[in-house]
Write a structure and sequence with these properties.
Strand content: under 5%
Number of helices: 2
Largest sheet: none
Oligomer: single chain
Structural class: mainly alpha
Distance between the termini: 41 Å
Helix content: 40-55%
Shape: elongated
Number of strands: 0
């Protein structure tokens, strides 16, 4: 995938950036921001997929393992 990189200047809360960097185990601030943006987009996609699943099942979710032995 071709990356479309461009230099940007933002005012960021340094404490939030450091906290994210620590949690994400990233080495640089730029890597931290890229990873955080990826995670935010992934979270939205996951929520949308879950919403579609719930809509398809009309809000009813059943445990497929009920009555089956646990391995």
């Amino acid at each position: 995938m071709k990356r479309n990189l461009r230099r940007k200047n933002y005012r960021l809360d340094v404490a939030k950036l450091r906290r994210a960097q620590k949690r994400l185990h990233t080495r640089t601030e730029t890597e931290t921001i890229h990873r955080a943006l990826d995670l935010a987009a992934d979270e939205v996609e996951l929520a949308e997929a879950l919403r579609r699943l719930l809509d398809k099942g009309k809000g009813h979710i059943t445990d497929a393992t009920l009555g089956r032995p646990h391995l």
